[in-house]
Amino acid sequence: MMGRTVSSSGLCSLELRSLCSLASSAPPNKLHGLHYPSGSGGRKYRTQHQPGQVGQAQVNQILKAYEYSHSFPKGSASHGVLGFHSNMLPSNHPSEDRRSSATCLPGRGGVMFGVFDGHAGAACAQAVSHRLFYYMTVAMLPLRTLGEMESAVEEDRPAPPLLEWHRHPRDPCELDYGTIPVDSLRNYWQDRLQQEEEEAEEDEESVSSGLISAFKRLDFDISVEAQVHLSRGSSGCGSTPLHVAFSGCTACVALVSNGTLHVANLGDSRAVLGVQEADGSWSALNLTNDHNAQNPDELQRIMGEHPRSEKRTVVRHDRLLGLLLPFRGFGNMRFKWSPEMLSHVNEKKQDMMLPPHYLTPPYLTAEPEVTQHRICPRDKFLVLATDGLWELMHRQTVVQLVAQQLTGLQYQRPLVPGAGMTLGGLQRLLVERRGRVQAVLEDHNAATHLLRHALGDDGYGAVAPNRLAKMLSLPPDLARRYRDDITITVILLNEPDV
Fold first, then answer.
1. How far is 380 from 113, CA to CA, in rounded Å?
2. Phi–psi pair at 327, nearest 5 degrees
3. Which of 155, 324, 330, 406 qualifies as a cystine partner to 320, CB 3.0-4.6 A?
4. Rounded Cα–Cα distance for residues 69 and 364 (Å)
């Protein structure tokens, strides 16, 4: 057994060679044309738009359609994670975001969480969300354990399970791949087994290097699988390996193992730690950096990887080669393959023209930036979210809202009118407090609570029902102009009475 799936429908055991139901009876989605957003700034709501407005019951139905919560039993097997809340709100149809949550069973174990933001379609995000945790597990397992797995496969015996998945029933978990991903994963652990010496005892540094290895190897396999597919004379990017390779995604992944938090990030999704200070106040600790033109260090890195003669073309209009916003990501072979390879693809009528000023590839990397953090009693929760949330809310607001939802209003000081406060000001504070109480009572899921505030914020910290209804009433062809797909996972740490 390679994986097990846990959802509201129960436990589903899957055989090794199927790698968690990789064969799908549904045809793959049609390849979307390569498209990159025209602006890097946050989307602005235009509330004067008056579509047919949904009612309150429909608002809750929309907000909670992908809501999912899971609790872990106390003990060493939970690695310091109490549980998690997660939710998704599509803007694209279908959504280009994906999420994953799983328990790593062998070796040192751990709990894994990830959010994945796709572009040029959802194919790459779907593949990565399903395959990356397997690669991470293989990267961190002792060679002895990998040897036992290889022997089991060779002798056609059941292999020990690697992952226990925690999924919402509506999360897509199937891919039309045949045996390709299984073969690639096995090749990965065979390559590791060729190392002559047993690895040293695991430490934090080896976990970080394992995460980097897993990310890079999966991206390498995505590239190789697409090239093999091309070499066999297959035509059209609608074929799954090409679809995955020429779309792309960012990834923000957290591994919690034995009380240590490891975050590996590619792109502009973020991980923010909610910390409760000694005086009861809350602070937001960034555990990731955005990999785009707004990050001076990242801009300097990519400029340093190419000749000075390309100084004005590597990044144009805050985009990679004037086209792509994130500077790191899976897939997007249009920014990685050689000019000769892309020309060959174009000759096969794949509509894959060279990007402008494409001189010294690769321009895009799948090497993540890894952060380690030893969890302490003040660290109460971690928020993983795609950039659709961060375009709408500041990290401190996000932490305050999650704390509000988890603790009610305990973190707020009593409402004491200040000197010189007018009656109107006091009334506004009372309305704000009432709105917050109603929102806390409405949502039992912290991710849903964030979605409700992100879309319905009235400017005073409360939710305006009419505004929220308008935002959820936008037709599909307009919704993308106002917001991106939003995916959020809130990971609860330490004791429940935060």
1. 16
2. -95, 0
3. 324
4. 35
Between CA 218 and CA 222 the distance in angstroms is: 6
CA 407 to chain centre: 26
Lookup: tokens for 235: 């035509």
**Dihedral in degrees, nearest 10, Cα atoms 400, 403, 409, 411:** -80
Query: Residue 443 pLDDT more than 60?
Result: yes
The whole-model pTM stands at 0.83
Highest mean pLDDT among 20-24, 236-240, 309-313: 309-313
Highest mean pLDDT among 82-86, 231-235, 492-496: 82-86
Paired with 373 in beta bridges are: 261
Q: Which two tokens stand for residue 352?
A: 């894959």
